[in-house]
Request: fold
Amino acid sequence: MKVYISADIEGTCGIVDWEETNLHDPQATYHKEQMTKEVNAACLGANDLGCEDIFVKDAHGSARSINPSMLPENTRILRGWARNPHMMMAGIDEGFDASMFIGYHSAASEDGNPLAHTMNSVEYDYIKLNGMILSEFIMNAYTSIYYGIPVAFLSGDEMLCENAKKIFPNIVTVAVSKGIGNGSVSIHPNLAVKRINEGVKEALSGDLSRHMIKLPEKFEIEIKFRNHFKAYRASFYPGVEKLDSQTIKFVTNDYYEFLRMFLFI
Reply:
C-alpha cells in the first residue's frame, strides 16, 4: 500500500491563535510538535496495516513545521513549496492507493474554527465551488479524486469533519476541536493522537474504493477578494469574469484548469 498525506496545522488539537502557527514564534513550538505527533500517528496506523510507502506533504505556511525525524523511516516528506497547481497536494500522482488529511480546518467565512480560512487568511472573504463554500480540504480532496485516489481519512475541527461527510459519505473523520466564537474547545492532545491512529486503521481497512466519489462534471468557481484591486488583477486571467468590485467567476469542465487558474491569480 502507498499512501499520500497532506498535513496542515490550524486543525490540530489545541491550536487557537495565529501566533501559534508562525514558524519562528516561541508559542508555535508546542503546536508544531503536536502537528508532527498527529501526522506520525497517521503514519503508524497505516504501517500497522502493512503500508510500504508514505508520502507526507508539509502543507502549512512555509511548509517547514513537521519534524521529519519523528516520523517512521518509510515516510518521504515534501517540505517547502513546489509552486505548481497541486499546491498543498504537491507530489501527488496516480500511484497512490489512498489519501489522508491531518490537521485541516474550516473554510473562510465559516465559524467552525477561530483560524478558519481558505488557502490565504488575508486574501479572500470566501471561495465557492458550484455554490458550495470551498474549504482547503474539499479543494485538495478533489485533487486526489482527479488522480483516481480514494480520500480515506480526515482530522480537524468538528464542523469541517461534518461537512466532509456530506461530500465523502464513507470517509473516516476524527474531530479534535470545536470552534466557539474566537475560541476553541479541544480534546486532550494524547487522545487526539490515539484517535487518529485508530481512525486511520479503520479508514485503510477493507475495500478502499468505498472512499471514491465522482467529481462534478462542471466547476463554477466564485472568489470574493477582500481587496477590490485583487479582483481587478485576477480578471485578466483567461476565462475569468469580474462579477463586481471584489468578486470573480471562473467556469471549467477540467478541475486541473481551476487549480492552474488559482495558482496564477
Remarks:
- Residues 216 and 253 are 8 Å apart (CA to CA).
